[in-house]
């Protein structure tokens, strides 16, 4: 039996190693592009000719642009230098159609200086939506006085749609890049990711590719979005530009495609935004380190769950185990899961919390020796009997919890009353869940004391699931890294360090 378990663990570790090596190989294939080695089928960079360029940004309510009609020029950069970084903020007039829950698009042209973009045969352009649809965040109020968080809200600033319907939001940032490497592509081996951004022209006997323009959609974050109201005449738009290398461009294209795929699979804008934050708000070298850390976190999570379930599946008695500590862990994980759900936390955090809560509920069933007997349509719960040793353990457990309750209950109740008087919430349910979870985060570690007290009285720790504890201990250090990267409530972030 031990050999079987060892073989399974070795198989899991082997699959993990293969996955990491394969991912590294894929990443290498993304950032490295083989240059053209001959002269016959090479595609030269048009930027190597050092043309005088101009950058123009237009806005329109139309998703396709046929001519210069129905467009507004919002930014014009003459003598545009692809090597020079800049950031400019302009005010954009919002059409009536957009204010009535409509859309607005930005058309970005890179063309020859002094020539209108639609009359330049060597211009490149991209289109990007400046609006997106999202359900407005519910307003928080003081539950006792009814006072809103904004103190005074004008009627015209409220969207006309119901709160559960998506409304048009403004994206206040437009991030542009141009690939500046004088890279010579092999026409027979063009990378598919870059190919769709390339426009080729024939100059004499040589094929050139025009400047590769790229709009960084990953920089558009949910936290920056602004609700578009009927009274909004103008909105600010920050246009930023920076050059980009070929390797980084290819990596960024793949990341944008990955985020788009998540949205196609049903992930909300907010869920996709959590993934964006990992790439945008993190240094790429730190991101590479995070990938390896995340891979080990996944491995340790799986092994911890496996060993924990295996331990409790074979557990027949509760000798030396604190039943109340098991009940508390179950209550804590369920409350944390409901809190993260109420806060609309990233699925990267929510899914593991949900799995952990389900496992803790199953462990309570095992600890209480509970079984369900159906009498017709009515379920009945039956509990197994306890041995003398188990009753002794329960006595120590009760003694420890009684002493602990004198300290914890007043603190938790006091914290709940204070937050009710001074903090604003979306609903009474939100206040209740926040009060519970604050108690769990602040004093949860104290509920290890009953188990420690039982260990002290019984002079033994052999009854504990040490393998699962070991894997969880490794993950506490990894959670500290994730606390800086993944968006989550502040209290949950602090709890990672507390662990």
Automatic annotation (TrEMBL):
<keyword id="KW-1133">Transmembrane helix</keyword>
<dbReference type="InterPro" id="IPR008429">
    <property type="entry name" value="CLPTM1"/>
</dbReference>
<protein>
    <recommendedName>
        <fullName>Lipid scramblase CLPTM1L</fullName>
    </recommendedName>
</protein>
<feature type="transmembrane region" description="Helical">
    <location>
        <begin position="12"/>
        <end position="32"/>
    </location>
</feature>
<dbReference type="Pfam" id="PF05602">
    <property type="entry name" value="CLPTM1"/>
</dbReference>
<keyword id="KW-0812">Transmembrane</keyword>
<dbReference type="GO" id="GO:0016020">
    <property type="term" value="C:membrane"/>
</dbReference>
<feature type="transmembrane region" description="Helical">
    <location>
        <begin position="400"/>
        <end position="421"/>
    </location>
</feature>
<comment type="similarity">
    <text>Belongs to the CLPTM1 family.</text>
</comment>
<keyword id="KW-0472">Membrane</keyword>
<comment type="function">
    <text>Scramblase that mediates the translocation of glucosaminylphosphatidylinositol (alpha-D-GlcN-(1-6)-(1,2-diacyl-sn-glycero-3-phospho)-1D-myo-inositol, GlcN-PI) across the endoplasmic reticulum (ER) membrane, from the cytosolic leaflet to the luminal leaflet of the ER membrane, where it participates in the biosynthesis of glycosylphosphatidylinositol (GPI). GPI is a lipid glycoconjugate involved in post-translational modification of proteins.</text>
</comment>
<feature type="transmembrane region" description="Helical">
    <location>
        <begin position="326"/>
        <end position="341"/>
    </location>
</feature>
<feature type="transmembrane region" description="Helical">
    <location>
        <begin position="284"/>
        <end position="305"/>
    </location>
</feature>
<feature type="transmembrane region" description="Helical">
    <location>
        <begin position="427"/>
        <end position="449"/>
    </location>
</feature>
């Amino acid at each position: 039996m031990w050999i079987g378990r060892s073989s399974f663990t070795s198989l899991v570790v082997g699959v993990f190693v293969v996955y990491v090596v394969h991912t590294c190989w894929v990443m290498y294939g993304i950032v490295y592009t083989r240059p053209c080695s001959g002269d016959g089928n090479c595609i030269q960079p048009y930027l190597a000719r050092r043309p005088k360029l101009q950058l123009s940004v237009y806005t329109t309510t139309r998703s396709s642009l046929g001519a210069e009609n129905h467009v507004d020029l919002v930014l014009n950069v003459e003598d545009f230098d692809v090597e020079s970084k800049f950031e400019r903020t302009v005010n954009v007039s919002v059409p009536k159609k957009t204010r009535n829950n409509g859309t607005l698009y930005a058309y970005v042209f890179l063309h020859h200086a002094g020539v209108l973009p639609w009359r330049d045969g060597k211009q490149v352009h991209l289109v990007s939506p400046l609006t997106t649809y999202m359900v407005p965040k519910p307003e928080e109020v003081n539950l006792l006085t009814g006072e809103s968080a904004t103190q005074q809200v004008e009627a015209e600033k409220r969207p006309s749609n119901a709160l559960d319907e998506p409304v048009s939001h403004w994206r206040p940032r437009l991030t542009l890049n141009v690939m500046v490497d004088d890279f010579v592509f092999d026409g027979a081996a063009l990378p598919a990711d870059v190919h769709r951004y390339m426009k080729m022209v024939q100059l004499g006997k040589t094929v050139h590719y025009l400047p590769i323009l790229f709009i960084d959609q990953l920089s558009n974050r949910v936290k920056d979005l602004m609700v578009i109201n009927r009274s909004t005449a103008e909105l600010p738009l920050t246009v930023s530009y920076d050059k980009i290398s070929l390797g980084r461009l290819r990596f960024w294209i793949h990341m944008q495609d990955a985020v788009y795929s998540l949205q196609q699979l049903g992930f909300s804008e907010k869920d996709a935004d959590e993934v964006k934050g990992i790439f945008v708000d993190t240094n790429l070298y730190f991101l590479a380190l995070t990938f390896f850390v995340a891979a080990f976190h996944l491995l340790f999570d799986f092994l911890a769950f496996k060993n924990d379930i295996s331990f409790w599946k074979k557990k027949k008695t509760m000798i030396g185990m604190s039943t109340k500590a098991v009940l508390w862990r179950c209550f804590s994980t369920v409350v944390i899961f409901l809190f993260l759900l109420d806060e609309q936390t990233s699925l990267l955090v929510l899914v593991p919390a949900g799995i952990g809560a389900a496992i803790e509920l199953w462990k309570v069933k095992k600890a209480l020796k509970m079984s369900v007997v159906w009498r017709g349509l009515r379920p009945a719960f039956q509990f197994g009997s306890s041995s003398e040793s188990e009753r002794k353990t329960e006595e120590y457990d009760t003694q420890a919890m009684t002493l602990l309750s004198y300290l914890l209950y007043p603190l938790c109740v006091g914290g709940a009353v204070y937050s009710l008087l001074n903090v604003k919430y979306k609903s009474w349910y939100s206040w209740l869940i926040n009060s519970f979870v604050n108690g769990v985060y602040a004093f949860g570690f104290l509920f290890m004391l009953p188990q420690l007290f039982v260990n002290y009285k019984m002079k033994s720790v052999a009854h504990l699931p040490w393998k699962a504890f070991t894997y969880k201990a490794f993950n506490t250090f990894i959670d500290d890294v994730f606390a800086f990267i993944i968006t989550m409530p502040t209290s949950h972030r602090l709890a990672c360090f507390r662990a």
